User: Fold this.
Amino acid sequence: MNALTIRQLDTATGPVLYVAGDLDFDQAPVLRGRLDQLTLSPGQCLVLDLSGLAFCDSSGITALLAARQHALAADADIALAAVPANLMRVLTLVGLDQVFTLRPYSSAAS
Assistant:
């Protein structure tokens, strides 16, 4: 089991959260708590860089959906960047690839 770590980088277009480790039942509240403290302005884009994500279960997917709701409530956008192949497969199976903006990498990394 890998503990969840979240590193934040503030960019001109909005915050980038680098999420690494396991996003599971035990760790999903860590992401939700971090999102609750995150202030977004209308027009910004919250980017969740998932390149370091080792595992994500249904609780983790629910936390990602909560992040989307948080962004939409602030009249901001959200994008998932560098989604690992196993998670991308799940997102595609359940149709969430149509709900989230997906990027091959976070723009801050380029």
User: Anything to note?
Assistant: The longest strand covers residues 45-56.
